[in-house]
Specification:
L-fucose Isomerase, Chain A, domain 2; elongated; about 40% helix; 2 domains
Length: about 475
């Protein structure tokens, strides 16, 4: 799993047992170490290694900021000091995980050492007063399976939030004229979400393609890589253009500090370099730098979020909702000209000619079946939401490009959501169930989660450990 560093601030309250709080703080540290969690600790801040004194706040906040923590974990090791927890969380402005160990049976004299659950109730209320969103991990024991699941979920949420807030998208040329669906509000994306665009004109891309072809070495290596993983059904000079386009896009993404790309994939590019960009997009997608078609900025944002939710365990794929399955009432074709990463394919892909275009350079392969997440970040009129749900890959007729037939619970309900908006015909899929991660991340990002099946209570139950 990708390493995400969090700040660990175990908390106590003075009227309960300090020794027991120290004991449970250390047990929590041991469990996090067993799970391989990377965390910044506060054992050097005071002799107890606990958060309870207002005077320690500035030192703890500075340490966590200096170490670049992406989240804050607040184990309530006896009751907890709710206002100190809230002040620290407000100062750090990162996702917050609230949890406390399950309390033991009172002793023979009726004495309780901790009352951790009661402290969680208090801190939850005060965090709300401070308008600090938080994730709640149910009151459980360190060895319970829901603790491990909750920690891993929180780390994934932290990754989504961090990547989202630091996203910069390389926009290669304006959207195609006919694609009014992919228009976006650049200023609003920056103002609301700190998402930046780096727009460049098509000639800047084609000039870089020409440059890397003259330099040859890197292009030749990409061509050889393509031959090793795909069936090549295009000419050598066309494959060279595919490789050069991939190298050029990677160089421009590095130059402008971008973690995703949205490209005007047709039709100016074809007249300049004689190929479709799909195969080059596929190669970039396989490297974990999402490239989406038709200058779909919201699609690029979706792709970044999906890959972050998956903690780099699988690659996402950018798809069109296209046509209904000829035989399955809840079946649908997800397809695109050929930009999907090779690792998504269930067979050895080919580089050939796409559907509806005469230029070469598109990947052809059916994607793997199995359970997947389908999602779309989008918005209009100043409001943004994220369409979320699951699907299963199924058998269906052969079609050109990269494709997979999927089945959902109720296609008519999904279709209605897409048509009525704010969504369009594009989505991003991944062969993982990341619905709970994205659902939880939305609360930190000011995005409305929009589940296309009525599973919200199931998702909430999963998050809280049921």
């Amino acid at each position: 799993m990708k390493k995400i560093k969090i700040g660990l601030a175990p908390t106590r309250r003075s009227i309960f047992s300090a020794p027991d709080a120290i004991k449970y703080a250390n047990l929590t540290r041991e469990r996090l170490n067993e799970l391989g969690v990377d965390y910044a600790d506060i054992t050097d801040i005071n002799e107890e290694g606990l958060l309870y004194d207002d005077l320690d706040l500035a030192k703890i906040a500075k340490k966590f900021k200096d170490e670049g923590v992406k989240g804050l974990f607040l184990p309530h090791c006896n009751f907890g000091t709710e206002y100190v927890c809230a002040r620290l969380a407000k100062e750090l402005n990162v996702p917050v995980l609230l949890w406390g160990p399950r309390d033991e049976r009172p002793d023979e004299n009726g004495i309780r050492l901790r009352d951790s659950q009661c402290g969680l109730f208090a801190t939850g209320k005060v965090l709300r007063r401070f308008k600090v969103p938080f994730t709640y991990l149910t009151n459980c024991r360190l060895g319970d399976p829901e603790f491990e699941r909750g920690i891993k979920l929180f780390l994934s949420v932290c990754n989504v939030v961090d990547v989202f807030k630091h996203t910069r998208i390389l926009q290669i040329a304006p959207r195609p004229f006919d694609f009014w669906t992919t228009m976006c509000n650049e200023g609003e994306l920056l103002e609301k979400f700190n998402i930046q665009l780096a727009p460049i004109p098509m000639p800047e891309l084609t000039a870089r393609v020409k440059q890397v072809k003259e330099e040859k070495t890197e292009v030749a290596a990409v061509m050889e890589y393509c031959r090793s993983i795909m069936n090549i059904k295009i000419k050598d000079e066309e494959l060279e253009n595919v490789a050069a386009l991939k190298v050029a896009m990677k160089g421009l993404a590095d130059q402008y500090g971008c973690n995703a790309i949205a490209i005007q994939c047709w039709n100016a590019l074809q007249s300049e370099i004689g190929i479709m960009p799909c195969a080059a997009n596929s190669l970039m997608n396989e490297e974990g730098i999402p490239v989406v078609c038709e200058t779909d900025i919201h699609g690029a944002i979706t792709a970044v979020m999906v890959e972050a939710a998956g903690m780099d365990e699988a690659r996402g794929f950018f798809a069109d909702w296209t046509v209904r399955h000829p035989d399955n009432e809840n079946g649908e074709l997800l397809q695109h000209c050929g930009p999907w990463p090779v690792s998504v394919a269930k067979e050895k892909p080919s580089i050939g000619y796409p559907l509806a275009f005469s230029h070469p350079g598109a990947v052809e392969a059916e994607a793997k079946h199995g359970r997947m997440t389908l999602t779309r970040f989008d918005g209009d009129n100043g409001e943004y939401s994220m369409l979320l749900g699951n699907a299963t890959g199924i058998e269906g007729p052969y079609t050109k490009g990269t494709y997979v037939w999927i089945e959902v619970e109720n296609l008519k309900r999904l279709e209605d959501k897409i048509v009525c908006g704010p969504y369009i015909h594009h989505c991003v899929g991944i062969h993982l169930d990341v619905v709970p991660v994205l659902y939880e991340a939305c609360k930190y990002l000011g995005i409305k989660p929009d589940l296309y099946d009525p599973i919200e209570e199931d998702v909430k139950a999963w998050i809280r450990g049921e």
